[in-house]
C-alpha cells in the first residue's frame, strides 16, 4: 500500500513539471513571435532610410559625372528630400 502512494506522488510531480514546461514553451514562443514582428517593422523603416541614402548617392554621382545639369540636380535633390 505504501508503494502505490509513493508512485502516485512521483506521477503527480512529473505531471506538474510537464505542465510547467509546456506553459513555459508557449510563453517563450509568444515572446519570440512578438519580438520578430517588432524587428520586422524596424527593418522596414531602416530599409527606407537606406533607399533614400542610396538614391541621393546615385544622384550625386550622376551630377559629378556630368550626366545632370545643376538645375536638374537641385530639382531632383529637393524632390528626394521632400519625399522623406
UniProtKB/TrEMBL annotation:
Which keywords annotate this record?
Answer: Membrane, Transmembrane, Transmembrane helix
Q: Which InterPro entries match?
A: SHOCT
Show the stretches that span the lipid bilayer. Answer: 12-34
One Pfam family, short name: SHOCT
Q: Is Transmembrane helix one of the keywords?
A: yes
Q: Where is the SHOCT domain?
A: 55-76
Q: What protein name is recorded for this chain?
A: SHOCT domain-containing protein
Per the UniProt record, the source organism is Alkalihalobacillus alcalophilus ATCC 27647 = CGMCC 1.3604
Amino acid at each position: 500500500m505504501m508503494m502505490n502512494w509513493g508512485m502516485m506522488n512521483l506521477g503527480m510531480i512529473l505531471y506538474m513539471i510537464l505542465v510547467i514546461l509546456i506553459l513555459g514553451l508557449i510563453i517563450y514562443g509568444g515572446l519570440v513571435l512578438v519580438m520578430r514582428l517588432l524587428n520586422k517593422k524596424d527593418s522596414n523603416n531602416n530599409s527606407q532610410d537606406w533607399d533614400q541614402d542610396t538614391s541621393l548617392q546615385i544622384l550625386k554621382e550622376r551630377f559629378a559625372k556630368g550626366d545632370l545639369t545643376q538645375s536638374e540636380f537641385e530639382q531632383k535633390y529637393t524632390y528626394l528630400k521632400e519625399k522623406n
